[in-house]
């Protein structure tokens, strides 16, 4: 299962995807929340790395929508905002500050990769129950 990297900043998205792929992971990118939800439903990522501030649909809305899915993927939000860290804690989400340390990113990915290998694997397809939220 891929890791979904969601960020409206094309450069950040590309760098994170390249780093993940260089480390041997399959990674996909989405530029906004709407694209992220559609891609997550289709691809069933093992982990979603999610920027908070994006056009069309922000990361908080995406995280809430994903949490409502059956067997939702784990979400790690990232932002340069200290307010975002507090909000992530209130929502029970893992937070990674920007600019982030790639060592910390890979440690988080490795933790979720182990979890993904041990049991997730819902069938993709159909309509998302959260796409309308």
Brief digest:
With 133 residues, the protein is of the alpha/beta class.
Q: Judging from the principal axes of the Cα atoms, what is the shape?
A: globular
What name does CATH use for the topology? Rossmann fold
**Number of DSSP strands?**
5
Radius of gyration from the CA trace? 13 Å
CATH class: Alpha Beta
The percent range for strand residues is 15-25%
Overall tally of structural domains: 1
Q: Give the helix/strand class.
A: alpha/beta
Going by CATH, what is the homologous superfamily? Answer: Response regulator
CATH 2nd-level architecture: 3-Layer(aba) Sandwich
| Main beta sheet | 5 strands, parallel
- Look at the structure and give the mean pLDDT: 84
Low-confidence stretches: 118-133
Name the helix and strand elements from N-terminus to C-terminus, one letter apiece.
EHEHEHEHEH
- Oligomeric form: single chain
Query: What is the topology, as strand order, of the major beta sheet?
Result: 2-1-3-4-5
Structure description:
By secondary structure, the protein is an alpha/beta fold. The chain has one domain (3-117): 3-Layer(aba) Sandwich (Rossmann fold), CATH 3.40.50.2300. The protein is 44% helix and 17% strand. Strands 2-1-3-4-5 form a 5-stranded parallel sheet, sandwiched between helices. Helix 2 (33-43) packs parallel to helix 3 (59-67). Mean pLDDT is 84; it is low at 118-133.
């Amino acid at each position: 299962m891929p890791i979904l990297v969601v960020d409206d900043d094309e450069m950040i998205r590309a760098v994170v995807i390249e780093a993940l792929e260089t480390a041997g992971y399959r990674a996909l990118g989405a530029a906004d929340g709407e694209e992220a939800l559609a891609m997550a439903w289709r691809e069933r990522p093992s982990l979603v790395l999610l920027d908070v501030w994006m056009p069309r649909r922000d990361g908080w809305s995406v995280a809430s929508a994903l949490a409502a899915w059956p067997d939702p993927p784990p979400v790690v939000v990232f932002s340069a905002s200290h307010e975002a860290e507090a909000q992530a804690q209130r929502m029970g989400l893992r937070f990674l500050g920007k600019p982030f340390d790639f060592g910390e990113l890979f440690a988080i990915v490795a933790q979720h990769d182990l979890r993904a290998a041990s049991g997730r694997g819902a069938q993709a397809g159909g309509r998302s129950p959260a796409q309308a939220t």
